[in-house]
Structures are given as C-alpha cells and as structure tokens.
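Subject — a protein and its fold
Fields — amino acid sequence, structure tokens
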Amino acid sequence: MAEGEEELPRDAKIVKSLLKSMGVDDYEPRVINQFLELWYRYVVDVLTDAQVYSEHASKPAIDCDDIKLAIQSKVNFSFSQPPAREVLLELARNRNKIPLPKSIAGLGIPLPPERDTLISPNYQLAIPKKKRTAQAMEETEEDEEGGDPSQPSQEGRTDLPQHAPQRVSFPIGAKRPR
C-alpha cells in the first residue's frame, strides 16, 4: 500500500477502491472527501426516512422493510424514469404526421415576415421648430410695415404652432421608391 493510504479511514479506502475499479486513476484528493460527504448525507436521509416509516407503523425498531421503503421513495423522488419506448414512438408518429411548411426559396438568408421582426419602427422622431428671437420678430414687423410691394406678404403663410414639434416615423430597412 502507498504511504498515505494507511492513514485513510476505512470508508475513504472503499471510495478509493471504487474509483479504481471504475478506471479512474487520476483525481484530486478532495474528490474522496466529496464522495464521502455525499455518501454520509444519503445514508442519513435514508435512515431518517426509515425511522419515520417505522414510527408510523408503531414498530419499536427500524427493520429491513422500512429501509427498503425509504430507499425506494428516495429513488422515486430523486430520479424520474423516461417514458416507455412505445410511448415515445407513438408520440413521434403523431408529431411526424404533420408535414413541415414549405420553405420559400429565395436569395440570401430566409427571414421571417416583416411583422414578426424586431426591426419594425417603434419610435417617433420629434423635430423641434426653431424659436424666433426678438430681433427676428422685429425684422419681420419692419418688413411687413415698409416692405417692398413686389414681394408677397407673409400673412398668407400657414405654419404649425410654435410649441408643437413635428413628428416623423419611418420603417427601418424599408424599400425606397425609385
């Protein structure tokens, strides 16, 4: 035996021999401690459940049937069995009866319809109007009062109100008219 193996407890030697029998030769020493902790926790859980089952049956001590029942309930609770092969085959047959949709062969990568994409416009741009300064207002008034009669007056202009920003929205990637 190796030098460190004589100092190991009996349970650690058992874990080491199990690893060796499974073909695991290279591992960190902490692996043995982790397996021991898992092993002890499992045994304590099974014995605790067996004790509960024994007390429920009004038995003075835990017997083999209580331990079997505790192990079986732990296995049923911890591990779920896959469905039977026949059940899976039947499900596959039912699913495969429905044909796949025909693909539209086109150039490039096939993309989903425009309504199903995340690139449709979901925002609006606000373009603020320039506020007129006092000096610009005075110039406009002077033009109106003593303006050149050959130039059209600005009274016929229809502008949006000064406080309402103009809103513009457009789809990204939309085709431009030519």
Summary: The first helix runs from residue 10 to 21.
